[in-house]
Amino acid sequence: MANSPEPSSALYYYYLFIFKQLEVARKYTDYHTEKFGYKKSNVDFIYGYIEKLSEAGLKDSSFDIIISNGVVNLTPDKTAVLKEAWRVLKDGGEMYFSDVYANLNLPQELRGHSVLWGECLGGALWWKELLRIAQEVGFSTPRLVTARPFNVDNKDLLELLGDYKFVSATFRLFKIPPDCPRTKCEVIYNGSVRGCEQQLEFDANYTFQAGEVVEVDEETAAILKNSRFAAKFTIQPVSTSKTAAVPSGQRCSGQSKASEKASSWPFCFQDL
Ligand SMILES: C[S@@+](CC[C@H](N)C(=O)[O-])C[C@H]1O[C@@H](n2cnc3c(N)ncnc32)[C@H](O)[C@@H]1O
């Protein structure tokens, strides 16, 4: 943030607290630089609001990936968060984030409840709203990676919440050119993502085994072609004569085996 708040204001104490958090993060920079095999650190920790990244000095089209865990639900303006993320990402960039989602739009009385807000529940987005906002901002369809129920134990809160239910979910949103060609493709993962040499768990629908041919839908193909994954895959349009297109013995029938995990991404919400 450009200016620090007035000393003695409540916000000032929050500001000091965040600076302590930044100190802790910075302490481990060298450890991670070495662990991930970099000569020089490629991370920087700065103070700012997720929905106002320009105030923190983050420039347009300058990042490959944004990672966030449990922050988006704490901001009242989710559209601003996604717009800012889209702005600072390079073409082909990705927002990979975990958060809490609700089965319905929460009413104002729950959204404005300070305890529910602090528990990451009051600010939880209706999962269908994520789809709408992502589309409005220009991201690809949110791709679910994992999801699990977010259980509330406190009796008072449970009573307050009634039929509203929550899940904790991780999504991937890609910034790909809107006019890029979209055709179904056959792709082969080449095993070159460090730590994922045998298989690459892409999302709940696709786990790519190295060397295996997988037919992917139009949007997945566009993402793989236009993101940092382009160098990790051989990608070609689905051939009319299937057997001629790929070496025999390598073909996977339909999607990868992991597609059985989730046939459609909102599967985890349907039981709510
Ligand atoms: C539930 S914690 C998650 C922290 C961390 N990501 C983790 O996984 O441990 C939420 C964090 O979001 C930060 N936060 C809340 N509102 C924010 C905003 N509008 N912009 C940026 N950070 C925010 C809080 O300061 C807090 O550190």
Automatic annotation (TrEMBL):
Alphabetically list the UniProt keywords: S-adenosyl-L-methionine, Transferase
Superkingdom is: Eukaryota
- Which EC numbers does the record give? 2.1.1.137
Can you tell me where the transmembrane regions are? none
Name any Gene Ontology BP term. Answer: toxin metabolic process
Under the heading CDD domains, the entry gives: AdoMet_MTases
Q: Which GO terms describe its molecular function?
A: arsenite methyltransferase activity
Top class in the EC scheme: transferase
Task: Provide the Methyltransferase domain boundaries.
Answer: 21-138
**Which reactions appear under catalytic activity for this entry?**
arsenic triglutathione + [thioredoxin]-dithiol + S-adenosyl-L-methionine + 2 H2O = methylarsonous acid + [thioredoxin]-disulfide + 3 glutathione + S-adenosyl-L-homocysteine + H(+); arsenic triglutathione + 2 [thioredoxin]-dithiol + 2 S-adenosyl-L-methionine + H2O = dimethylarsinous acid + 2 [thioredoxin]-disulfide + 3 glutathione + 2 S-adenosyl-L-homocysteine + 2 H(+); arsenic triglutathione + 3 [thioredoxin]-dithiol + 3 S-adenosyl-L-methionine = trimethylarsine + 3 [thioredoxin]-disulfide + 3 glutathione + 3 S-adenosyl-L-homocysteine + 3 H(+)
Of the GO CC terms on this record, one is: cytosol
Q: What does the similarity note say? A: Belongs to the methyltransferase superfamily. Arsenite methyltransferase family.
Protein name in the entry: Arsenite methyltransferase
The scientific name of the source species is: Latimeria chalumnae
Primary gene name: LOC102352197
